[in-house]
Design brief:
16 strands; globular; 3 helices
Length: about 375
Amino acid sequence: MARIFHKFKSKIGLSIFALCLAFCLIGSSAGVLSVSNAQKRVAESTTNTEAEQIEQSATDNQGRTYWDYNANGSNVYDGSIQTFTAPITAKFMLEAWGASGGGSAGGYGAYSVSYVDLTAGNTVLILVGKAGGQGGNSYCGGGGGGTFFALGTAYASATPLCVAGGGAGGQCNNQVALATNNHGMATQASGLPTDNTTAPTVGYGGVKGIASSGGGFYGNGVTGRYGSYGYGFRQGGKGGEKTDSNAYGGYGGGGSTHGNCGGAPGGGGYTGGNAANSDHTGVLGGGGGSYYTGSYNGKSAKAIGGGGAIPSRTINSSATVSGKQGNGFARITQLNMPPQNNGAEPSNTKTRGTNVTHLLREIAKDADATNDTFTFADQNIYLA
């Protein structure tokens, strides 16, 4: 029998009986009680992974549970894919921020938001992109990695849910200002350098130039004269490893380049960015494409290119930011709870979605009347 409680000290038999009755209603299903004033969750879980996930969650100023994910791993070009297991069947908001391209002339990462229905137990894979490495020339750098959410238990067969493209890497001649196509893109298609305008297949890697192109969701980029290609998400998402001067591609499919000139590489994303096809001319690489889906309460999924004003990563903030943000970032927010049996009164047979809040609130009142210390958050509790 799962037990959910914050603190309880029994002083009278009636409180004990009522509390046991409420727990019997919950039955053998594991559940979570949110305590808003302390932002803590105590849960009995079937796996360590689920328990760790609950511990890492927090609550925003609307009372919604959310989970944040940062880039990981010690190298610019690699890391590990993280996982999220849906705790209940509900609608979730997925937010992705792509990584910046390396070098002072590198492009900026895009922002993307999706609204998706997940079933309890669904696994979401999360790859948070890394900024491209800076080369020996301060303008020069690797392509930024895209940030990805995908549904499935294995990256090789997962399907896209939300992707924010990474910015293109910089090149050694910084005479040309950054343009929309050099940043992570608001479209599924990636950015095209002015000297390499052959559009790649949407969802796959970019077209090589003198430098190497970025990886897409389904396929790798292509190695050019300098550097090496960024891997597609389904191939593991590594950035380009080959460089002569630290201009690695960022984890999340960023292409790499020479590092002391050698052309500008493409960013990673839903579609990989093309690499520039010339050197010493100021032509910059293409940013990675983005992907989004779904809607919720009149809000539609969308992406914002890296050159625009994108939402701040700070929780509970309505501010927007612009410019180079470094590594990518990811957030999952639970938007709703299970239905309450379509409004019907709970029967003696309790099922998922049953609202037991009223009964627990009455127990708390009784405990308070006898100077007991049982407390819980003023919010609905459902069988999980």
